[in-house]
Amino acid sequence: MVFRPVWGRRRNMALTRIVSLSFGALVAVAVSLVLYMTVKANYENTFSLLGDKAILITQSMERQVRSHLDQVEMAAVGVKALIEEKRIAVADVDRLLDDLSSAIAANTHITVLLVTDPKGDRNGVFRAPNGRLWPFKRQVPIDGQQIHHLPDLEPTSRPTWGPLVQNPMGFFANVSVPLVVDGTLVGYLTASSSIASIGEAIEKLDDGPDSTTFILTGDDLLIVHSDKHLLTTGGQPTAALPAPISAFGDPVLANLANKKVFSGFRHAADLGIEIAAIEAEGDEFLMMRVPITGYSTQPWMVGQYFRAATVSREIRRLAGSAVVGIGAMVIAVLIAIWLGRRVAQPLRVIAEQSEHVGRLALDDVQPLPRSRVKEIDQVALAFNAMVIGLQAMNTYVPRSLFNKLMRLGVDSAARPREAELTMLFTDIVGFTALSENLSAAETAQVLNDHFAILVDAIEAEGGTVDKFIGDGMLAFWGAPDSRPDHAEAAVRTAQKIGLALRANNVRQASEGGVPMRLRIDIHTGSVVVGNVGALDRWNYTIVGDAVNVCERLQSLGREVAAQDEVAILASSETVHRLPSGCRRELVGVHHLRGRSGDIEVWKLDPFEPWTVPVREAGGWPQVPAAQ
Asked: What is the pTM of this model?
Protein backbone atom coordinates (compact mmCIF):
# COMPACT_ATOMS: atom_id res chain seq x y z
CA MET A 1 0.00 0.00 0.00
CA VAL A 2 2.85 2.31 0.71
CA PHE A 3 4.76 1.80 -2.58
CA ARG A 4 1.90 1.58 -5.02
CA PRO A 5 1.25 5.34 -5.26
CA VAL A 6 4.97 6.00 -5.64
CA TRP A 7 5.26 3.46 -8.44
CA GLY A 8 2.18 4.94 -10.03
CA ARG A 9 3.71 8.41 -9.90
CA ARG A 10 6.94 7.12 -11.43
CA ARG A 11 4.99 5.38 -14.20
CA ASN A 12 3.05 8.55 -14.92
CA MET A 13 6.26 10.58 -14.98
CA ALA A 14 7.86 8.12 -17.42
CA LEU A 15 4.80 8.16 -19.64
CA THR A 16 4.79 11.97 -19.61
CA ARG A 17 8.42 12.02 -20.62
CA ILE A 18 7.83 9.50 -23.38
CA VAL A 19 4.84 11.41 -24.70
CA SER A 20 6.59 14.80 -24.44
CA LEU A 21 9.80 13.48 -25.95
CA SER A 22 7.91 11.69 -28.68
CA PHE A 23 5.78 14.75 -29.39
CA GLY A 24 8.87 16.95 -29.28
CA ALA A 25 10.67 14.59 -31.64
CA LEU A 26 7.61 14.49 -33.92
CA VAL A 27 7.37 18.28 -33.89
CA ALA A 28 11.11 18.55 -34.45
CA VAL A 29 10.94 16.18 -37.44
CA ALA A 30 7.83 17.89 -38.80
CA VAL A 31 9.31 21.35 -38.39
CA SER A 32 12.58 20.20 -39.93
CA LEU A 33 10.76 18.76 -42.94
CA VAL A 34 8.58 21.84 -43.30
CA LEU A 35 11.62 24.06 -42.98
CA TYR A 36 13.52 22.00 -45.53
CA MET A 37 10.64 21.96 -48.01
CA THR A 38 9.97 25.68 -47.54
CA VAL A 39 13.59 26.64 -48.06
CA LYS A 40 13.90 24.35 -51.06
CA ALA A 41 10.68 25.63 -52.65
CA ASN A 42 11.65 29.28 -52.19
CA TYR A 43 15.16 28.56 -53.44
CA GLU A 44 13.82 26.90 -56.59
CA ASN A 45 11.17 29.59 -57.08
CA THR A 46 13.75 32.34 -56.72
CA PHE A 47 16.03 30.81 -59.32
CA SER A 48 13.14 29.83 -61.57
CA LEU A 49 11.86 33.39 -61.61
CA LEU A 50 15.41 34.67 -62.12
CA GLY A 51 15.73 32.35 -65.09
CA ASP A 52 12.39 33.54 -66.47
CA LYS A 53 13.48 37.16 -66.02
CA ALA A 54 16.76 36.42 -67.82
CA ILE A 55 14.88 34.86 -70.72
CA LEU A 56 12.42 37.76 -70.97
CA ILE A 57 15.13 40.43 -70.79
CA THR A 58 17.62 38.83 -73.20
CA GLN A 59 14.99 37.83 -75.73
CA SER A 60 13.55 41.35 -75.63
CA MET A 61 17.01 42.82 -76.28
CA GLU A 62 17.69 40.30 -79.05
CA ARG A 63 14.34 41.09 -80.69
CA GLN A 64 15.12 44.80 -80.55
CA VAL A 65 18.50 44.34 -82.24
CA ARG A 66 17.25 41.90 -84.85
CA SER A 67 14.16 43.98 -85.61
CA HIS A 68 16.34 47.07 -86.12
CA LEU A 69 18.85 45.37 -88.43
CA ASP A 70 16.26 43.26 -90.26
CA GLN A 71 14.45 46.45 -91.25
CA VAL A 72 17.73 47.74 -92.70
CA GLU A 73 18.19 44.49 -94.63
CA MET A 74 14.59 44.48 -95.86
CA ALA A 75 14.98 48.06 -97.03
CA ALA A 76 18.10 47.09 -99.01
CA VAL A 77 16.25 44.15 -100.57
CA GLY A 78 13.29 46.39 -101.39
CA VAL A 79 15.45 49.01 -103.15
CA LYS A 80 17.30 46.21 -104.97
CA ALA A 81 13.98 44.93 -106.33
CA LEU A 82 12.99 48.41 -107.55
CA ILE A 83 16.34 48.82 -109.35
CA GLU A 84 16.20 45.38 -110.94
CA GLU A 85 12.62 46.05 -112.06
CA LYS A 86 13.95 49.29 -113.68
CA ARG A 87 11.71 51.43 -111.52
CA ILE A 88 14.89 53.11 -110.27
CA ALA A 89 17.55 53.88 -112.88
CA VAL A 90 21.15 53.50 -111.73
CA ALA A 91 22.54 55.36 -114.74
CA ASP A 92 20.53 58.52 -114.00
CA VAL A 93 22.51 59.62 -110.93
CA ASP A 94 20.33 62.63 -110.03
CA ARG A 95 17.14 60.59 -110.15
CA LEU A 96 18.90 57.74 -108.32
CA LEU A 97 19.84 60.08 -105.47
CA ASP A 98 16.26 61.36 -105.27
CA ASP A 99 14.95 57.79 -105.03
CA LEU A 100 17.57 56.82 -102.46
CA SER A 101 16.68 59.93 -100.44
CA SER A 102 13.05 58.85 -100.40
CA ALA A 103 14.01 55.35 -99.30
CA ILE A 104 16.28 56.52 -96.48
CA ALA A 105 13.73 59.09 -95.32
CA ALA A 106 11.12 56.33 -95.02
CA ASN A 107 13.34 54.16 -92.82
CA THR A 108 14.84 55.91 -89.78
CA HIS A 109 17.06 52.90 -89.06
CA ILE A 110 19.24 53.57 -92.15
CA THR A 111 22.15 56.01 -91.89
CA VAL A 112 23.78 55.53 -95.32
CA LEU A 113 22.30 54.16 -98.55
CA LEU A 114 24.63 54.04 -101.55
CA VAL A 115 25.17 52.34 -104.90
CA THR A 116 28.66 51.29 -106.02
CA ASP A 117 29.06 50.75 -109.76
CA PRO A 118 31.50 48.17 -111.22
CA LYS A 119 34.12 50.96 -111.62
CA GLY A 120 34.07 51.69 -107.91
CA ASP A 121 32.20 55.01 -108.10
CA ARG A 122 29.80 55.50 -105.21
CA ASN A 123 26.61 57.55 -105.26
CA GLY A 124 24.34 57.69 -102.27
CA VAL A 125 22.70 59.52 -99.41
CA PHE A 126 23.99 60.08 -95.87
CA ARG A 127 21.75 60.91 -92.88
CA ALA A 128 23.54 63.37 -90.59
CA PRO A 129 23.09 63.17 -86.78
CA ASN A 130 20.69 66.13 -86.99
CA GLY A 131 18.50 64.16 -89.41
CA ARG A 132 19.44 66.09 -92.56
CA LEU A 133 20.01 64.04 -95.73
CA TRP A 134 23.22 64.67 -97.72
CA PRO A 135 23.35 63.21 -101.24
CA PHE A 136 26.84 62.60 -102.60
CA LYS A 137 28.27 61.67 -106.00
CA ARG A 138 31.41 59.57 -106.61
CA GLN A 139 32.72 60.36 -103.14
CA VAL A 140 32.03 59.78 -99.48
CA PRO A 141 30.39 62.47 -97.33
CA ILE A 142 32.75 62.37 -94.33
CA ASP A 143 36.02 63.90 -95.52
CA GLY A 144 36.98 60.83 -97.52
CA GLN A 145 36.44 58.45 -94.59
CA GLN A 146 35.26 54.89 -95.13
CA ILE A 147 31.52 54.57 -94.59
CA HIS A 148 30.95 50.95 -95.59
CA HIS A 149 32.65 47.66 -96.39
CA LEU A 150 31.78 46.02 -99.69
CA PRO A 151 32.19 42.22 -99.41
CA ASP A 152 32.88 39.92 -102.33
CA LEU A 153 29.49 39.37 -103.96
CA GLU A 154 28.35 37.24 -106.84
CA PRO A 155 25.34 38.21 -108.98
CA THR A 156 23.32 35.54 -107.15
CA SER A 157 24.54 36.45 -103.65
CA ARG A 158 22.02 36.97 -100.87
CA PRO A 159 22.18 40.06 -98.60
CA THR A 160 25.61 39.96 -96.97
CA TRP A 161 26.65 41.81 -93.81
CA GLY A 162 30.21 43.09 -93.75
CA PRO A 163 32.44 43.90 -90.79
CA LEU A 164 31.67 46.93 -88.63
CA VAL A 165 33.04 50.20 -89.98
CA GLN A 166 34.26 53.07 -87.82
CA ASN A 167 34.82 56.68 -88.83
CA PRO A 168 34.69 60.08 -87.09
CA MET A 169 30.91 60.10 -87.38
CA GLY A 170 30.43 56.83 -85.50
CA PHE A 171 30.28 53.07 -85.80
CA PHE A 172 28.21 51.41 -88.53
CA ALA A 173 26.86 47.98 -89.46
CA ASN A 174 26.34 47.51 -93.19
CA VAL A 175 24.64 45.05 -95.52
CA SER A 176 25.23 44.78 -99.28
CA VAL A 177 23.33 43.18 -102.18
CA PRO A 178 24.26 42.79 -105.86
CA LEU A 179 22.26 44.68 -108.49
CA VAL A 180 21.50 42.65 -111.61
CA VAL A 181 19.49 44.20 -114.44
CA ASP A 182 18.61 42.06 -117.47
CA GLY A 183 21.18 39.48 -116.37
CA THR A 184 24.02 42.02 -116.10
CA LEU A 185 25.69 43.08 -112.84
CA VAL A 186 25.31 46.87 -112.75
CA GLY A 187 26.58 47.53 -109.24
CA TYR A 188 26.09 46.92 -105.55
CA LEU A 189 23.68 48.46 -103.05
CA THR A 190 24.81 48.99 -99.45
CA ALA A 191 22.66 50.04 -96.48
CA SER A 192 24.39 51.10 -93.26
CA SER A 193 22.94 51.65 -89.80
CA SER A 194 24.55 53.52 -86.94
CA ILE A 195 25.35 51.37 -83.93
CA ALA A 196 24.32 54.34 -81.79
CA SER A 197 20.74 54.02 -83.05
CA ILE A 198 20.78 50.31 -82.15
CA GLY A 199 22.01 51.28 -78.70
CA GLU A 200 19.09 53.66 -78.25
CA ALA A 201 16.70 50.78 -78.97
CA ILE A 202 18.05 48.41 -76.29
CA GLU A 203 18.79 51.14 -73.75
CA LYS A 204 15.02 51.49 -73.37
CA LEU A 205 15.08 48.02 -71.77
CA ASP A 206 17.42 49.19 -68.99
CA ASP A 207 15.66 48.48 -65.67
CA GLY A 208 17.10 51.54 -63.89
CA PRO A 209 20.25 52.72 -62.09
CA ASP A 210 21.04 49.22 -60.77
CA SER A 211 21.18 47.60 -64.23
CA THR A 212 23.23 48.09 -67.39
CA THR A 213 22.63 46.90 -70.97
CA PHE A 214 25.52 46.37 -73.39
CA ILE A 215 26.61 44.88 -76.73
CA LEU A 216 30.05 43.33 -77.30
CA THR A 217 31.62 42.13 -80.53
CA GLY A 218 33.45 38.83 -80.82
CA ASP A 219 36.81 40.43 -79.97
CA ASP A 220 35.47 42.04 -76.75
CA LEU A 221 34.94 45.44 -78.35
CA LEU A 222 32.23 47.33 -76.47
CA ILE A 223 29.95 49.06 -79.00
CA VAL A 224 26.83 49.81 -76.89
CA HIS A 225 26.64 50.69 -73.18
CA SER A 226 23.60 52.21 -71.47
CA ASP A 227 25.62 53.98 -68.72
CA LYS A 228 27.33 56.76 -70.66
CA HIS A 229 27.69 59.17 -67.73
CA LEU A 230 27.52 57.22 -64.46
CA LEU A 231 28.35 53.53 -64.09
CA THR A 232 26.33 51.18 -61.90
CA THR A 233 29.44 50.66 -59.78
CA GLY A 234 30.02 54.41 -59.46
CA GLY A 235 32.43 56.59 -61.40
CA GLN A 236 32.40 57.48 -65.06
CA PRO A 237 33.56 55.73 -68.25
CA THR A 238 37.18 56.49 -69.16
CA ALA A 239 36.81 56.06 -72.94
CA ALA A 240 34.27 56.79 -75.64
CA LEU A 241 32.46 54.04 -77.52
CA PRO A 242 33.43 51.90 -79.28
CA ALA A 243 36.22 50.78 -76.95
CA PRO A 244 37.78 47.55 -75.68
CA ILE A 245 36.20 46.48 -72.39
CA SER A 246 39.59 46.83 -70.71
CA ALA A 247 39.76 50.52 -71.71
CA PHE A 248 36.14 51.62 -71.25
CA GLY A 249 36.37 51.69 -67.47
CA ASP A 250 33.46 49.40 -66.51
CA PRO A 251 34.88 47.08 -63.80
CA VAL A 252 32.07 44.55 -64.26
CA LEU A 253 32.76 43.99 -67.96
CA ALA A 254 36.51 44.23 -67.32
CA ASN A 255 36.18 41.14 -65.06
CA LEU A 256 34.17 39.25 -67.66
CA ALA A 257 36.90 36.63 -68.02
CA ASN A 258 36.51 35.73 -64.32
CA LYS A 259 32.75 35.17 -64.48
CA LYS A 260 31.15 32.18 -62.77
CA VAL A 261 28.57 30.62 -65.08
CA PHE A 262 25.45 29.13 -63.44
CA SER A 263 24.64 25.68 -64.82
CA GLY A 264 21.23 25.31 -63.15
CA PHE A 265 19.28 27.44 -65.62
CA ARG A 266 18.68 24.70 -68.19
CA HIS A 267 15.81 26.39 -69.98
CA ALA A 268 17.84 29.54 -70.47
CA ALA A 269 20.88 27.50 -71.55
CA ASP A 270 18.77 25.63 -74.12
CA LEU A 271 17.88 29.03 -75.61
CA GLY A 272 21.57 30.01 -75.79
CA ILE A 273 21.31 32.41 -72.82
CA GLU A 274 24.26 32.54 -70.42
CA ILE A 275 23.66 33.54 -66.78
CA ALA A 276 26.74 34.21 -64.68
CA ALA A 277 28.01 35.98 -61.55
CA ILE A 278 30.79 38.60 -61.67
CA GLU A 279 32.55 40.24 -58.71
CA ALA A 280 33.64 43.86 -59.12
CA GLU A 281 34.43 46.70 -56.72
CA GLY A 282 33.68 44.45 -53.73
CA ASP A 283 30.13 43.77 -54.98
CA GLU A 284 28.51 40.92 -56.85
CA PHE A 285 26.59 41.28 -60.11
CA LEU A 286 24.41 38.94 -62.11
CA MET A 287 24.89 39.02 -65.86
CA MET A 288 22.73 37.52 -68.60
CA ARG A 289 23.71 37.61 -72.26
CA VAL A 290 22.90 35.92 -75.56
CA PRO A 291 24.88 35.74 -78.83
CA ILE A 292 23.53 37.29 -82.02
CA THR A 293 24.96 36.18 -85.36
CA GLY A 294 24.41 37.11 -88.97
CA TYR A 295 24.92 40.89 -88.88
CA SER A 296 28.71 41.11 -89.09
CA THR A 297 31.72 38.93 -89.73
CA GLN A 298 31.89 38.33 -85.97
CA PRO A 299 29.04 37.41 -83.63
CA TRP A 300 27.74 40.00 -81.18
CA MET A 301 26.91 39.46 -77.54
CA VAL A 302 23.93 41.46 -76.20
CA GLY A 303 23.30 41.38 -72.46
CA GLN A 304 22.44 43.07 -69.20
CA TYR A 305 23.88 42.95 -65.69
CA PHE A 306 22.51 44.14 -62.34
CA ARG A 307 23.39 43.98 -58.68
CA ALA A 308 23.01 40.48 -57.26
CA ALA A 309 22.31 41.71 -53.73
CA THR A 310 18.56 41.15 -53.94
CA VAL A 311 19.07 37.54 -55.06
CA SER A 312 22.24 36.50 -53.21
CA ARG A 313 21.00 37.96 -49.93
CA GLU A 314 17.81 35.96 -50.20
CA ILE A 315 19.83 32.79 -50.80
CA ARG A 316 21.97 33.49 -47.74
CA ARG A 317 18.86 34.25 -45.72
CA LEU A 318 17.35 30.94 -46.82
CA ALA A 319 20.43 29.07 -45.59
CA GLY A 320 20.48 31.08 -42.36
CA SER A 321 16.81 30.42 -41.70
CA ALA A 322 17.48 26.67 -41.86
CA VAL A 323 20.25 26.95 -39.23
CA VAL A 324 18.14 29.17 -37.01
CA GLY A 325 15.19 26.78 -37.34
CA ILE A 326 17.29 23.80 -36.22
CA GLY A 327 18.78 25.75 -33.28
CA ALA A 328 15.37 27.04 -32.17
CA MET A 329 13.65 23.66 -32.03
CA VAL A 330 12.42 24.37 -28.44
CA ILE A 331 9.96 26.95 -29.78
CA ALA A 332 9.38 25.09 -33.04
CA VAL A 333 5.65 24.77 -32.56
CA LEU A 334 5.13 28.50 -32.07
CA ILE A 335 7.38 29.25 -35.00
CA ALA A 336 5.54 26.70 -37.14
CA ILE A 337 2.14 28.21 -36.32
CA TRP A 338 3.37 31.75 -36.90
CA LEU A 339 5.30 30.87 -40.03
CA GLY A 340 2.42 28.78 -41.37
CA ARG A 341 0.05 31.68 -41.04
CA ARG A 342 2.58 34.04 -42.59
CA VAL A 343 3.40 31.71 -45.46
CA ALA A 344 0.03 30.14 -46.23
CA GLN A 345 -1.77 33.35 -47.08
CA PRO A 346 0.86 34.67 -49.53
CA LEU A 347 1.24 31.26 -51.16
CA ARG A 348 -2.53 31.01 -51.63
CA VAL A 349 -2.55 34.46 -53.22
CA ILE A 350 0.36 33.42 -55.44
CA ALA A 351 -1.53 30.26 -56.46
CA GLU A 352 -4.70 32.26 -57.24
CA GLN A 353 -2.78 34.79 -59.32
CA SER A 354 -0.79 32.03 -61.02
CA GLU A 355 -4.08 30.46 -62.11
CA HIS A 356 -4.95 33.71 -63.89
CA VAL A 357 -1.54 33.65 -65.57
CA GLY A 358 -2.11 30.04 -66.64
CA ARG A 359 -5.40 31.09 -68.28
CA LEU A 360 -3.65 34.11 -69.88
CA ALA A 361 -6.12 36.37 -68.08
CA LEU A 362 -3.39 38.90 -67.40
CA ASP A 363 -5.86 41.74 -66.83
CA ASP A 364 -7.26 39.79 -63.85
CA VAL A 365 -3.85 39.38 -62.20
CA GLN A 366 -3.48 41.56 -59.11
CA PRO A 367 0.04 42.58 -58.00
CA LEU A 368 1.24 40.48 -55.08
CA PRO A 369 1.53 42.55 -51.90
CA ARG A 370 4.84 43.08 -50.14
CA SER A 371 5.57 40.75 -47.24
CA ARG A 372 7.59 41.04 -44.05
CA VAL A 373 8.95 37.56 -44.77
CA LYS A 374 11.88 38.31 -47.05
CA GLU A 375 11.63 35.10 -49.08
CA ILE A 376 7.94 35.69 -49.79
CA ASP A 377 8.68 39.33 -50.53
CA GLN A 378 11.30 38.31 -53.11
CA VAL A 379 8.89 35.84 -54.70
CA ALA A 380 6.23 38.56 -54.85
CA LEU A 381 8.62 41.04 -56.45
CA ALA A 382 9.83 38.47 -59.00
CA PHE A 383 6.26 37.34 -59.76
CA ASN A 384 5.11 40.93 -60.30
CA ALA A 385 8.08 41.55 -62.60
CA MET A 386 7.22 38.40 -64.56
CA VAL A 387 3.59 39.49 -64.99
CA ILE A 388 4.72 42.92 -66.21
CA GLY A 389 6.94 41.19 -68.76
CA LEU A 390 4.09 38.94 -69.92
CA GLN A 391 1.76 41.92 -70.22
CA ALA A 392 4.39 43.73 -72.31
CA MET A 393 4.75 40.66 -74.56
CA ASN A 394 0.96 40.32 -74.82
CA THR A 395 0.90 43.85 -76.26
CA TYR A 396 2.53 42.52 -79.44
CA VAL A 397 0.81 39.11 -79.63
CA PRO A 398 -3.01 39.26 -80.14
CA ARG A 399 -4.60 37.65 -77.10
CA SER A 400 -7.50 36.16 -79.05
CA LEU A 401 -5.11 34.47 -81.49
CA PHE A 402 -2.93 33.19 -78.68
CA ASN A 403 -5.95 31.75 -76.85
CA LYS A 404 -7.18 30.04 -80.00
CA LEU A 405 -3.79 28.47 -80.69
CA MET A 406 -3.50 27.28 -77.08
CA ARG A 407 -7.02 25.83 -77.17
CA LEU A 408 -6.55 24.07 -80.51
CA GLY A 409 -2.94 23.03 -79.92
CA VAL A 410 -0.11 25.21 -81.21
CA ASP A 411 1.72 22.42 -83.04
CA SER A 412 -1.28 21.36 -85.12
CA ALA A 413 -3.18 24.67 -85.43
CA ALA A 414 -0.14 26.74 -86.44
CA ARG A 415 1.21 24.25 -88.99
CA PRO A 416 1.03 25.85 -92.47
CA ARG A 417 -1.92 24.59 -94.50
CA GLU A 418 -4.13 25.63 -97.40
CA ALA A 419 -7.58 26.84 -96.43
CA GLU A 420 -10.42 28.92 -97.79
CA LEU A 421 -10.72 32.08 -95.69
CA THR A 422 -12.40 35.44 -95.88
CA MET A 423 -10.08 38.44 -95.56
CA LEU A 424 -10.87 42.03 -94.64
CA PHE A 425 -8.59 44.96 -95.44
CA THR A 426 -9.14 48.53 -94.19
CA ASP A 427 -7.61 51.81 -95.32
CA ILE A 428 -8.18 55.36 -94.04
CA VAL A 429 -9.01 57.78 -96.87
CA GLY A 430 -6.59 60.70 -97.05
CA PHE A 431 -4.74 59.84 -93.88
CA THR A 432 -1.52 61.43 -95.15
CA ALA A 433 -3.22 64.81 -95.51
CA LEU A 434 -5.03 64.33 -92.20
CA SER A 435 -1.79 63.65 -90.31
CA GLU A 436 0.09 66.62 -91.77
CA ASN A 437 -1.41 68.93 -89.16
CA LEU A 438 -0.88 66.50 -86.29
CA SER A 439 2.16 65.88 -84.12
CA ALA A 440 3.68 62.41 -83.91
CA ALA A 441 1.95 61.78 -80.57
CA GLU A 442 -1.40 62.98 -81.93
CA THR A 443 -1.00 60.84 -85.05
CA ALA A 444 -0.26 57.77 -82.93
CA GLN A 445 -3.27 58.49 -80.71
CA VAL A 446 -5.59 58.84 -83.70
CA LEU A 447 -4.37 55.52 -85.11
CA ASN A 448 -4.58 53.77 -81.73
CA ASP A 449 -8.18 54.93 -81.21
CA HIS A 450 -9.07 53.93 -84.77
CA PHE A 451 -7.49 50.47 -84.49
CA ALA A 452 -9.22 49.92 -81.14
CA ILE A 453 -12.58 50.29 -82.91
CA LEU A 454 -11.51 47.85 -85.60
CA VAL A 455 -10.08 45.23 -83.24
CA ASP A 456 -13.17 45.29 -80.99
CA ALA A 457 -15.42 44.61 -83.99
CA ILE A 458 -13.15 41.86 -85.36
CA GLU A 459 -12.80 40.00 -82.05
CA ALA A 460 -16.56 40.29 -81.44
CA GLU A 461 -17.07 38.23 -84.61
CA GLY A 462 -14.30 35.73 -83.82
CA GLY A 463 -11.86 37.07 -86.41
CA THR A 464 -8.06 37.10 -86.31
CA VAL A 465 -6.06 40.32 -86.70
CA ASP A 466 -3.13 39.58 -88.99
CA LYS A 467 -1.20 42.84 -89.07
CA PHE A 468 -1.36 46.64 -89.12
CA ILE A 469 0.08 48.21 -92.29
CA GLY A 470 0.52 51.95 -91.78
CA ASP A 471 -3.03 53.23 -91.41
CA GLY A 472 -4.45 49.97 -92.74
CA MET A 473 -5.24 46.61 -91.18
CA LEU A 474 -5.60 43.03 -92.44
CA ALA A 475 -7.81 40.46 -90.67
CA PHE A 476 -9.26 37.08 -91.61
CA TRP A 477 -11.88 34.51 -90.59
CA GLY A 478 -11.78 30.72 -90.81
CA ALA A 479 -8.44 30.08 -89.09
CA PRO A 480 -7.03 28.85 -86.82
CA ASP A 481 -10.52 27.63 -85.87
CA SER A 482 -12.55 26.69 -88.92
CA ARG A 483 -16.07 28.08 -89.39
CA PRO A 484 -18.45 27.78 -92.34
CA ASP A 485 -19.81 31.32 -91.98
CA HIS A 486 -16.48 33.14 -92.35
CA ALA A 487 -17.79 35.34 -95.18
CA GLU A 488 -20.87 36.37 -93.16
CA ALA A 489 -18.73 37.11 -90.09
CA ALA A 490 -16.39 39.32 -92.12
CA VAL A 491 -19.29 41.34 -93.57
CA ARG A 492 -20.94 41.71 -90.16
CA THR A 493 -17.63 42.97 -88.85
CA ALA A 494 -17.36 45.53 -91.65
CA GLN A 495 -20.84 46.82 -90.88
CA LYS A 496 -20.07 47.04 -87.16
CA ILE A 497 -16.97 49.04 -88.04
CA GLY A 498 -19.06 51.34 -90.23
CA LEU A 499 -21.56 52.04 -87.46
CA ALA A 500 -18.81 52.57 -84.89
CA LEU A 501 -16.92 54.92 -87.22
CA ARG A 502 -20.05 56.97 -87.92
CA ALA A 503 -20.69 57.34 -84.17
CA ASN A 504 -17.07 58.36 -83.65
CA ASN A 505 -17.28 60.92 -86.47
CA VAL A 506 -20.38 62.47 -84.88
CA ARG A 507 -18.51 62.79 -81.60
CA GLN A 508 -15.44 64.24 -83.34
CA ALA A 509 -17.58 66.81 -85.14
CA SER A 510 -19.21 67.92 -81.87
CA GLU A 511 -15.76 68.33 -80.30
CA GLY A 512 -14.31 70.26 -83.22
CA GLY A 513 -12.34 67.28 -84.53
CA VAL A 514 -11.89 66.06 -88.10
CA PRO A 515 -14.18 63.21 -89.25
CA MET A 516 -12.55 60.16 -90.84
CA ARG A 517 -13.52 58.24 -93.97
CA LEU A 518 -12.72 54.55 -94.39
CA ARG A 519 -12.54 51.98 -97.18
CA ILE A 520 -13.13 48.32 -96.31
CA ASP A 521 -12.40 45.51 -98.79
CA ILE A 522 -13.50 41.88 -98.37
CA HIS A 523 -12.49 38.86 -100.43
CA THR A 524 -12.84 35.10 -100.00
CA GLY A 525 -10.28 32.72 -101.42
CA SER A 526 -7.74 29.98 -100.87
CA VAL A 527 -4.57 30.97 -98.98
CA VAL A 528 -1.75 29.37 -97.02
CA VAL A 529 -2.27 30.00 -93.31
CA GLY A 530 0.04 29.11 -90.42
CA ASN A 531 3.45 29.88 -89.02
CA VAL A 532 5.72 31.63 -91.54
CA GLY A 533 9.25 32.68 -90.66
CA ALA A 534 12.58 31.23 -89.58
CA LEU A 535 14.37 30.29 -86.37
CA ASP A 536 12.74 32.18 -83.46
CA ARG A 537 10.98 34.79 -85.59
CA TRP A 538 7.74 33.03 -86.52
CA ASN A 539 4.57 34.83 -87.43
CA TYR A 540 1.10 33.29 -87.68
CA THR A 541 -0.12 34.86 -90.92
CA ILE A 542 -1.69 34.26 -94.32
CA VAL A 543 -0.04 34.39 -97.74
CA GLY A 544 -1.31 33.89 -101.25
CA ASP A 545 -2.89 35.54 -104.27
CA ALA A 546 -6.20 35.98 -102.44
CA VAL A 547 -4.48 38.28 -99.92
CA ASN A 548 -3.21 40.48 -102.76
CA VAL A 549 -6.72 40.61 -104.29
CA CYS A 550 -8.20 41.80 -100.99
CA GLU A 551 -5.56 44.49 -100.58
CA ARG A 552 -5.86 45.75 -104.17
CA LEU A 553 -9.64 46.05 -104.00
CA GLN A 554 -9.16 49.23 -101.98
CA SER A 555 -7.86 51.04 -105.05
CA LEU A 556 -11.34 50.69 -106.61
CA GLY A 557 -12.81 52.67 -103.73
CA ARG A 558 -11.32 55.84 -105.20
CA GLU A 559 -13.42 55.27 -108.33
CA VAL A 560 -16.73 53.84 -107.11
CA ALA A 561 -17.03 55.35 -103.61
CA ALA A 562 -14.79 58.39 -103.57
CA GLN A 563 -16.96 60.49 -101.23
CA ASP A 564 -18.52 57.77 -99.04
CA GLU A 565 -17.99 58.02 -95.32
CA VAL A 566 -17.55 54.23 -95.20
CA ALA A 567 -17.22 52.19 -98.38
CA ILE A 568 -17.43 48.38 -98.23
CA LEU A 569 -16.36 46.59 -101.43
CA ALA A 570 -16.59 42.82 -101.67
CA SER A 571 -15.67 40.36 -104.38
CA SER A 572 -18.24 38.01 -105.87
CA GLU A 573 -16.49 35.12 -104.09
CA THR A 574 -17.60 36.69 -100.81
CA VAL A 575 -21.02 38.01 -101.89
CA HIS A 576 -22.08 34.58 -103.23
CA ARG A 577 -21.72 33.24 -99.69
CA LEU A 578 -23.95 35.84 -98.06
CA PRO A 579 -27.64 35.50 -97.16
CA SER A 580 -30.18 37.18 -99.39
CA GLY A 581 -30.97 39.78 -96.69
CA CYS A 582 -27.63 41.49 -97.16
CA ARG A 583 -28.06 44.67 -99.21
CA ARG A 584 -25.56 44.87 -102.05
CA GLU A 585 -25.03 46.71 -105.32
CA LEU A 586 -23.01 45.48 -108.30
CA VAL A 587 -20.40 48.09 -109.26
CA GLY A 588 -19.03 46.23 -112.24
CA VAL A 589 -16.33 43.87 -113.39
CA HIS A 590 -12.85 45.27 -112.87
CA HIS A 591 -9.28 44.36 -113.64
CA LEU A 592 -6.89 44.42 -110.68
CA ARG A 593 -3.21 45.21 -111.08
CA GLY A 594 -1.09 42.07 -111.13
CA ARG A 595 -3.94 39.69 -112.10
CA SER A 596 -4.66 38.17 -115.47
CA GLY A 597 -8.43 37.87 -115.05
CA ASP A 598 -11.23 40.28 -114.14
CA ILE A 599 -13.13 40.28 -110.88
CA GLU A 600 -16.74 41.09 -110.13
CA VAL A 601 -17.01 43.72 -107.37
CA TRP A 602 -20.01 44.54 -105.17
CA LYS A 603 -20.71 47.46 -102.88
CA LEU A 604 -22.35 46.62 -99.51
CA ASP A 605 -24.41 48.87 -97.24
CA PRO A 606 -22.22 49.75 -94.25
CA PHE A 607 -24.94 51.11 -91.97
CA GLU A 608 -27.88 48.68 -92.22
CA PRO A 609 -26.89 45.20 -90.98
CA TRP A 610 -29.15 42.48 -92.29
CA THR A 611 -31.30 40.13 -90.20
CA VAL A 612 -29.81 36.66 -90.55
CA PRO A 613 -32.50 34.13 -91.56
CA VAL A 614 -32.47 30.48 -90.53
CA ARG A 615 -29.78 28.64 -92.50
CA GLU A 616 -31.20 25.84 -94.60
CA ALA A 617 -29.67 22.37 -94.66
CA GLY A 618 -28.02 23.06 -97.99
CA GLY A 619 -26.56 26.41 -96.91
CA TRP A 620 -27.44 29.90 -98.16
CA PRO A 621 -28.87 30.10 -101.68
CA GLN A 622 -26.35 31.47 -104.15
CA VAL A 623 -27.03 35.02 -105.34
CA PRO A 624 -26.90 35.67 -109.06
CA ALA A 625 -23.86 37.25 -110.63
CA ALA A 626 -25.71 40.56 -111.07
CA GLN A 627 -28.72 42.31 -109.59
From this structure: 0.45
